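Page 47, continued from p. 46.
Same chain as before, 122 aa.
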Amino acid sequence: MTRVGWIATGLAIAALAGATYGLGLTPAVAHGAAQWIADGAYKAPNGSTCCGVSDCHRAEGATAKRVPDGYIIAVTIEGKSYALFTPKAAVFGSIDDAVWYCALPQDYVSGHARCLFLPRSV
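Result:
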């Protein structure tokens, strides 16, 4: 086979691998109880997705306080208390009667949640 033939074969294999990946034939990363957030493809105002591998959590017993331009929830993460602000554009409906929030360590340390999911009763 010529050099051009090998290149063409390599490109065909790469295209097939890309198509297989696009069809979802790769291992899925589980989100646990927050899988519904990942499945919903919710996005924060900056365009980033709300849900990562382990950054969305049910806020047991948390209530959301409405403030100008958004909500604040009080949560305890690894024994420390945080008040997390979420802008209105990143607040969505919850699938249950719980408050859910999505935040990475750099988010909650700075007092923010990327996304907040509130029950309809709020």
